[in-house]
Structure formats: structure tokens, C-alpha cells
């Protein structure tokens, strides 16, 4: 390799690193800006109760996909740690639904806030191809601020969705 080619390659590599750094910074600023805009809509989440009754639907293991502003299945909530996917356990009680997330604070959905529990093909830009369009369990609920959001959960065993849908009826 001659000197001119090597210098050109180094300049190209340096420009490429700067462009990638700029794009990553722009993405982070966009995420932070979106979070500031959503803070007023989301407000504070309901507190986790100290005690609850026995589960009406036993725990379901899977992945917490995230929350979206209803009815837009692709408008991700990025306030706090609500926008991050993680392993989770979903349990239904007479008082509400508990989403216990690995590496995140638990989410408590009070019973009187639940609007609907349904299955969807996808949520938060995550589509799960299935024959019955039942790849994601979506829980629509109303926050104390009055904003409606959908919480997406993908179970390890999708056959468990029938227990959740029967409990809703």
C-alpha cells in the first residue's frame, strides 16, 4: 500500500468515526427530548401496594416489551425506564396487574385503571409473526394523569394468553 492510499484510508476512517459519533449523539438527544415532552403526559406511576390477595392468574414469564401512548402502537413511552425491554413476570391479582421487570422498577396497574387486555400482532415497533396475530399481550390502562397507555408483554408460552383473556371477560 502506498503512502497516498494509506493517508486517504486514515482520513476516511476518521471522518467515518466522527459521523457515527454525531449520529449517536443526535439519537440520544432525540430520546432525551422525547422523554421531556412525555413527562407531563405520564406523570407518576401508581405506587406498588404493600399487600395483595392471592393471584387470580398465576405468574407468566416472558419479556416486557415497553409502553406506548394509546392508541398509537408505535409511539414508545421513554420516560424513566418504561422504554427499555427486559425479562419480566406478569401476575394478575384482584386488585390489579403486577409487572415485575428484571433490572427495572415493578409496574403496578390498578384494577380500576385497566381498560382492556387483548392480544396484538405487535407493539412498540416489535411485530411478532403468528398465524392468529397473538404475538403480544397488550394491556391498555389509564395513568393517574389521565393518559391512556398500552403495556406490551410477550410470554415465553403464548398459550398462556388464554388465561389472561378469560380473566378479562
Structure description:
This protein has 169 residues and is α+β, with helices and mostly antiparallel strands. It has 2 helices and 9 strands, in the order H-E-E-E-E-E-E-E-E-E-H. The protein has helices spanning 3-42, 161-168; strands at residues 57-69, 86-93, 96-101, 107-110, 114-120, 122-123, 126-127, 136-142, 148-155. The strands form 2 sheets. Strands 4-3-2-1-9-8-5 form a 7-stranded antiparallel β-sheet, with helices on one face. A two-stranded antiparallel ribbon has the order 6-7. It is elongated, with a radius of gyration of 21 Å. 22% of the residues are buried. The mean pLDDT is 86.
Radius of gyration: 21 Å
Q: How much is the average pLDDT?
A: 86
Please write the string of helix (H) and strand (E) elements: HEEEEEEEEEH
Helix content: 25-40%
Shape: elongated
This entry's quaternary arrangement is single chain
The side-by-side strand order for the widest beta sheet comes to 4-3-2-1-9-8-5
Main sheet summary: 7 strands, antiparallel
* Total number of strands: 9
Strand content: 25-35%
Structural class: alpha+beta
Q: Calculate the terminal CA-CA distance, rounded to whole Å.
A: 72 Å
Number of helices: 2
Q: Low-confidence runs (pLDDT<50, min 5 residues)?
A: none
Amino acid at each position: 500500500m502506498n503512502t497516498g492510499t494509506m493517508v486517504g484510508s486514515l482520513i476516511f476512517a476518521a471522518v467515518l468515526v466522527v459521523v457515527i459519533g454525531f449520529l449517536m449523539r443526535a439519537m440520544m438527544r432525540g430520546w432525551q427530548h422525547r422523554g421531556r415532552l412525555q413527562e407531563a403526559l405520564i406523570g407518576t406511576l401508581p405506587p406498588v401496594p404493600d399487600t395483595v390477595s392471592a393471584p387470580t392468574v398465576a405468574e407468566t414469564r416472558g419479556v416486557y416489551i415497553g409502553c406506548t401512548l394509546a392508541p398509537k402502537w408505535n409511539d414508545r413511552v421513554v420516560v424513566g425506564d418504561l422504554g427499555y425491554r427486559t425479562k419480566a413476570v406478569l401476575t394478575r391479582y384482584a386488585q390489579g396487574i403486577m409487572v415485575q421487570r428484571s433490572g427495572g422498577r415493578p409496574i403496578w396497574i390498578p384494577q380500576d385503571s385497566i381498560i382492556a387486555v387483548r392480544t396484538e400482532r405487535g407493539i412498540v415497533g416489535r411485530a411478532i409473526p403468528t398465524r392468529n396475530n397473538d404475538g403480544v399481550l397488550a394491556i391498555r390502562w389509564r395513568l393517574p394523569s389521565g393518559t391512556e397507555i398500552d403495556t406490551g408483554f410477550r410470554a415465553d408460552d403464548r398459550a398462556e394468553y388464554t388465561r389472561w383473556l378469560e380473566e378479562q371477560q
